[in-house]
Amino acid sequence: MAKLVKVAVGCGKRKYPGWAHLDLGDYPHLDYNCSVEDLPFKDNSVDVLYASHVLSYFNRNSAKLILQEWKRVLKRGGKLYIAVPDFKAISELYTNLDYPLHYFLGPLYGLMDLGGSEIYHRTVYDESSLGELLKSSGFNRVERYNPQKLIGKIDDHSLAKIDGFSISLNLRCAKWD
Description:
5 helices, two-stranded antiparallel sheet, alpha/beta, 7-stranded mixed β-sheet
């Protein structure tokens, strides 16, 4: 039986056992030091892609192109697991429960140092907008998933919570064409 090809794109400092690691950062565990926009894999060669709090660093036009690239490398029936800050959950905590703004600056703006330059999130998503983007990019079977069932208890933004409230939108989908 062939081994599953699982790739964590934009993994940063996180190391997921059993996964190939891809990022532009300078981390010793990386298997591939490259952009998430141009994957070094053949068409239809990857079983699972995981992208936690990566897509928000790109505007929506670029995100559509990136999703097409990710779809290219996925096998038929391959799964994409994606996590982004959940704008609806954040908005509700801010508006309805009066959490102070500073709680949300990191998730909303995502400041990260990348090789001496700073990058920030360029957009936000809620379940409807991300689901529509995934469907319009040719993915189907879009649904929420529990990241702990995928990655365990690794310190990962897909598990981000504020006082027990999840602020990460975690969706999975599949490629069937």
